[in-house]
Amino acid sequence: TWVDVSVFVGSIGLFFTLFLLFLRVLPSIAIAEVKLLLKSASEQAKLEQIKEGHLDKEQVAEYVESLEKFDSVKQEQYAKI
Questions:
Q1: Which of 16, 42, 49, 62 could tie 54 with a disulfide, CB 3.0–4.6 Å?
Q2: SS3 helix, strand, coil % of the chain, rounded to 5?
Q3: Distance CA 22, CA 43 (A)
Q4: For the whole model, what pTM was predicted?
Q5: How far apart are CA 47 and CA 78, in angstroms?
Q6: What is the DSSP string of 39-51?
Q7: Residue ranges of domains in the chain
Q8: How many Cα atoms sit within 13 Å of 21 on the Cβ side?
Q9: Per-residue pLDDT tens over the stretch 25-69
Q10: In a 3-state reduction of DSSP, which class is residue 72?
């Protein structure tokens, strides 16, 4: 009936209205900033684990070697280990 169709169309309209309002107030965060924060946080955590001796020497050597090859990390922090 026409009531069913109008309720269906109205519910779709309400959904898209609320969806667009959600997108409007959604905080926009740059993905590059998130990656930078995660990289530095995980790098600091890994460095602390290495200093405390929670990782095997082979894993540490492989990690430091991969940092030298593929990443732009200050190597003087890892030279002390």
A1: 49
A2: 80, 0, 20
A3: 34
A4: 0.41
A5: 8
A6: HHHHHHHHHHHHH
A7: 2-79
A8: 6
A9: 877 777 777 777 776 567 777 888 888 888 888 888 888 787 777
A10: coil
Distance CA 67, CA 72 (A): 7
Q: Which amino acid is at 39?
A: K
Residue 71 · residue 36 · CB < 8 Å: no
**Average confidence (pLDDT) over 2-21:** 97
Residue 12 has pLDDT above 70, yes or no: yes
Q: Which tokens belong to 5?
A: 């169709």
Q: Residue 16: its pLDDT value, please?
A: 98
The predicted pLDDT at position 73 comes to: 66
CA 31 to chain CA mean position, Å: 8
Spatial contact of 9 and 17, defined as CB atoms under 8 Å apart: no
The C-alpha atoms of residue 5 and residue 52 are separated, in whole angstroms, by 66
